[in-house]
Amino acid sequence: EVRLVESGGGAVQAGGSLRLSCTASGFIIDDSAVAWFRQAPGKEFEGVAWIRGVDGITGYADSIKGRFTISKEGQNTVHLQMNSLKPEDTAVYFCAATIFNLSPFAWVGKLEEREYDYWGQGTQVTVSS
């Protein structure tokens, strides 16, 4: 059974840092792409970052570029390091994955919800000013 569990959320002041973790089971990261999305109150669902597991290639939304870093650790964990946090980063953060049936190198990274088949339950990040 494929499962994704997020952890590491919490409350922090503006300018601070948090590291989110996504722990995967039922598949290995090298066979997939994993992304982080977020849902802020009153705002649209937003893709934040993705990583292709087999080679570690990454992509980021413009809104967080230079502040957030996505990385993998081993075959079952993906992290999202968030630095220089702003109040507008306050949201529930979700981990999502797509598992490749064919060559992973054919996959073009996208931050579109429909690209990902498996989702975690989310973790709250609150940034105060």
Report on this structure:
The protein is mainly β and 129 residues long. Helices cover 0% and strands 50% of the residues. It contains no helices and 11 strands. It has strands at residues 3-7, 10-13, 18-25, 32-39, 46-52, 58-60, 68-73, 77-82, 91-99, 118-119, 123-128. The radius of gyration is 14 Å and the shape is globular. The mean pLDDT is 96.
Alpha plus pi helix count: 0
Largest sheet: 7 strands, mixed
- Average pLDDT level: 96
Fraction in beta strands = over 45%
SSE order, one letter for each helix or strand: EEEEEEEEEEE
Rounded to the nearest angstrom, the distance between the terminal CA atoms is 41 Å
Kindly state the percentage of residues in helix.
under 10%
Total strand count, please?
Answer: 11
Radius of gyration, in angstroms, nearest whole number? 14 Å
Overall form: globular
Low-confidence stretches: none
Structural class: mainly beta
Any chance you could write out the topology, listing elements then pairs?
Elements: E1 3-7, E2 10-13, E3 18-25, E4 32-39, E5 46-52, E6 58-60, E7 68-73, E8 77-82, E9 91-99, E10 118-119, E11 123-128
Parallel strand pairs: 2-11
Antiparallel strand pairs: 1-3, 3-8, 4-5, 4-9, 5-6, 7-8, 9-10, 9-11
How do you describe this structure in short?
The chain has no helices and eleven strands.
Can you tag this structure with a few keywords?
single chain, mainly beta, 7-stranded mixed β-sheet, 4-stranded antiparallel β-sheet, 11 strands, globular
